[in-house]
Give the backbone structure.
Amino acid sequence: MPIYQYKCSNCGKSFERMQSLSEDSIKDCPYCSGKGSVHKVYGDVPVIFHGSGYYCTDHPHSSCDSCPHHEGGN
Ligand SMILES: [Zn+2]
């Protein structure tokens, strides 16, 4: 199984997880329990998902109250 590196944008810690391709990406940080603040890192190059709050595009704007990254972008 491939090992993926993740990094938390909330507390800044990085960690690795062995996951199969069919497994969902980790989104919640095990260190600070930050919901949705973890993103995958490929090698030395961080993957940028359109900046913070990228997943807010996945659902109606009115649902963004539950998004920890939705930092008053209105
Ligand atoms: Zn964290």
